[in-house]
Write a structure and sequence with these properties.
The structure is a single chain. Helix 1 runs antiparallel to helix 2 and helix 1 packs antiparallel against helix 4. By secondary structure, this protein is mostly helical. It is elongated.
Length: about 160
Amino acid sequence: MTSAEALDAVLDDLRTYRVDPGAGGLFTALRQVDLLGHLALRFTGDGYHTHTGDIESDNPTQDALTAHQTAATIGRAFAHYTQALPALTQASDPTNHTTLKGQLAALNHHSSLRQHLHAAQSTLEEARHVLTGVTPLPTNSPSSTVAKPPADPNPPHRPGR
């Protein structure tokens, strides 16, 4: 599996397996954190081995730099996931849902959880763009092509300008 394929596989996993409060969500989040750690390590190693000549390349310095930039971007996604874990833990605590105050706090935890998970996925899509210059479409998108927005109409003519 190439590095790009590995990154695509992790992106697909994040899209397919949603992290929701509860024991299943905690397991999924930890599994995905593990995937992100392995992916960052792979890109870091690829960058090192490309730079030292262990991996053949037409432009080893640029390819190593691209691998290291991708690893750094994946590291930011890893950070978002770890920042989501406290919110996920709080949202998963059933005792927080027994009082009105707990239910209101749970809304904040859910919001924080979704923000961090969305930021992690966006960051991984950015990593894909850093690696290949291509932004992948989500696998659940209705069309594999993106429609071009209609052109703006010509502005009205203003005399004297």
